[in-house]
Give the backbone structure.
Amino acid sequence: MPARIVIGLQWGDEGKGKITDYLAEDADLIVRYQGGNNAGHTVVVGSEKFKLHLIPSGILHPGKGCILGNGMVIDLGALVSEIEGLRARKVSFDNLMISPKAHLIMPYHIFLDSEEEVQRKERKIGTTGRGIGPAYRDKVDRCGIQIGDLFSQELFQEKVGMNLEKKKLGSKFSVSEIVKSCSDHFQIIREFVKPVNGILHDHLIHGKNILLEGAQGTLLDLDHGTYPYVTSSYPTSGGACLGSGIGPGSIKAVIGVVKAYSTRVGEGPFTTELRDDLGDALREIGHEYGTTTGRPRRTGWLDLVALKYAVQINGVTEIALTKLDILCGITPLKVATGYRIGERIQTEFPEIGGMLQQSTPIYEEIPGFKDLKRESEFYYNQYIGFIEKFLGVPVTIVSYGEKRDETFIRKEKEAGVAQR
Ligand code: GDP
Ligand code: IMO
Ligand code: MG
């Protein structure tokens, strides 16, 4: 039962792309299970930097199968340009597969995404503007269009017409133009659209390794995130089963990716946010600008209250800690281990959204570190030790640079990690 899930435990941009690419070395199949081109996953191979939005981060390992799962929403134009851009850089798509059940992001979804942001006035979410929310809304409303619908142009045309009528957008968009542009794009990618459930289960039966790659992060999850400041899909481990068609019994490990400090793009509560020079310094040193939209990311200290919650929600079995190098030379380091809400102090992440807005962090200080060159630094680093003890989950992977070889595997028994 060798499926492993890679998920973000914060607000996205934890370094899931780098960790997925690293772990893909041992995988046979890599599956993206939710989200769309709101995601931006950066993978550095040698001197080359790749920014992936829809394509799984395993694609840079030739020969590995890569699947865009049923839980994704796909903008066909964005997919075609991503594939063409990568092909121009000699990336092979011989083993790419797309679930026919994945939903399409249509031009009217992108239009509605930006219209609705304007209408929200002071309650903006700060979406990526890629049409994600409206596309998932149609899926739930059972008027969404799946990629597989494009195999019948008649059916596709009928569905586009019904949608424009239902949304009263008939004067804004032309059915025939949408059908033409989607059909043109579909011709380029139709060879990849195939029934993937059988392929996935064959792999499981034959003991092959499957890696399920999440986009966004736990605190952006539609159910478990900081609602309504969330995305419209399920980045959490439950979403990995739903969005790939692999049952929970086949999941061997849940690898939670944690950035060594916190960042968030868009609006919404962020208890440990630093709105000062240190926050600005973290943004600059850590290059904290959105991979997809280029927006500056908000920055802050590590929030162990939120992370403990994320570990519970996902059933995390191990942690991949990234960007530790960015904290080199900062001392002391602070981590939030509790929240003050009015007169009360609590160590649980509040489940009532409004309470989170009122939370202020209670910090503990940990001495900083200067360099991360020696192996012992990774085993006995106090910051790592504090995190795994607090969360009760071993930190098995430490990333200290964007490159593949700037990754250290901590073996559990030698690290002396806390027991769950
Ligand atoms: P994702 O959305 O979770 O895949 O993360 P992003 O790719 O949006 O953002 C993470 C950024 O940090 C990327 O630019 C990575 O190349 C970079 N990165 C990942 N791990 C490390 C690390 O350990 N150290 C440094 N300095 N950069 C890293
Ligand atoms: P990766 O996969 C960081 C944020 C947006 C906004 C909210 C809703 O690279 O970690 P949406 O367009 O999804 O409706 O926007 O979610 N958001 C992300 N933040 N990383 C991402 O993806 C994100 N995808 C969406 O900024 O606050
Ligand atoms: Mg990202």
